[in-house]
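> forwarded from #structure-qc
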């Protein structure tokens, strides 16, 4: 039954307390650093620069005293989706490549060096975005992430935007990721105990794979909606009314380590732009 243990491969939404220097940073600092890394990855077309960013995230994983194997295992769930995107790019995007060198051409399939570089860059970017999100949630509790997002977006309240509600919705969505994985694990084991089979269909027949996964998806959505309804009832029972009249128990303050981390993040962004 180990192949149905989905929760062990989910790192987004999990929190591992190690009391490392990364954990002790202000949540606003970590949010801004994550934004800088994403901005650097999306503003460069160099796979080398993207690999540099991945290497920096690997170094941050070591400083945060996290098991690198556990963090990398969280990238496994996106592997089928990533492979699908790469195949679609190779099949249908080659015709739009401006490269003069063509390595292989057959009907509408056209493989060029520029296309392969683009496919590699897209795969590295997707892995980097998931890596950043995993590190952010592994080193920061949901409550502190909520406070960080709310204070960073606080000026937008002056134009009437519901900042607190927006931050809360995002944190609940992140927190539901491991919950949904746990629920999927329970449903899969329950179906297997009743004689269900989900892993025998070939990967090149997505129609059969989708049909085999249907007995999992329907109860999963039903149970997820039930949990969401229970969450709403619990919040109403505690007289939750949004940000109106709420005070803050946690006061965030930037320390010298936060300013130093932000300076390093800015220097990394400039270096990536230089490599691009």
């Amino acid at each position: 039954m180990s192949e149905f243990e989905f929760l062990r491969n989910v790192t987004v939404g999990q929190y591992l307390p190690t009391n490392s220097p990364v954990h002790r940073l202000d949540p606003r600092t970590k949010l801004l650093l994550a934004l800088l890394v994403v901005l650097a990855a999306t503003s460069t077309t160099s796979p080398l620069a993207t690999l540099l960013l991945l290497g920096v995230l690997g170094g941050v994983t070591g400083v945060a005293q996290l098991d690198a194997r556990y963090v990398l295992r969280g990238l496994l769930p996106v592997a089928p989706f990533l492979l699908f995107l790469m195949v679609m790019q190779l099949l249908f995007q080659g015709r739009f490549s401006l490269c003069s060198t063509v390595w292989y051409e057959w009907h509408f399939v056209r493989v060029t060096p520029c296309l392969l570089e683009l496919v590699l860059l897209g795969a590295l970017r997707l892995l980097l975005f998931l890596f950043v999100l995993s590190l952010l949630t592994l080193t920061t509790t949901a409550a502190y992430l909520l406070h960080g997002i709310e204070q960073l977006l606080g000026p937008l309240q002056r134009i009437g935007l519901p900042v607190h509600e927006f931050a809360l919705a995002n944190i609940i969505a992140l927190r539901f990721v491991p919950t949904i994985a746990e629920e999927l694990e329970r449903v899969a084991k329950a179906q297997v105990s009743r004689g269900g089979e989900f892993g025998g269909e070939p990967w090149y027949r997505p129609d059969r794979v989708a049909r085999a996964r249907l007995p999992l998806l329907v109860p999963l959505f039903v149970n997820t909606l039930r949990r969401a309804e229970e969450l709403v009832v619990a919040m109403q029972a505690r007289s939750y009314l949004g940000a109106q009249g709420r005070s803050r128990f946690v006061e965030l303050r930037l320390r010298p380590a936060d300013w130093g981390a932000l300076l390093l993040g800015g220097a990394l962004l400039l270096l990536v732009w230089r490599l691009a």
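QC bot note: The chain is about 65% helix and 0% strand. The chain has one domain: 2-275.
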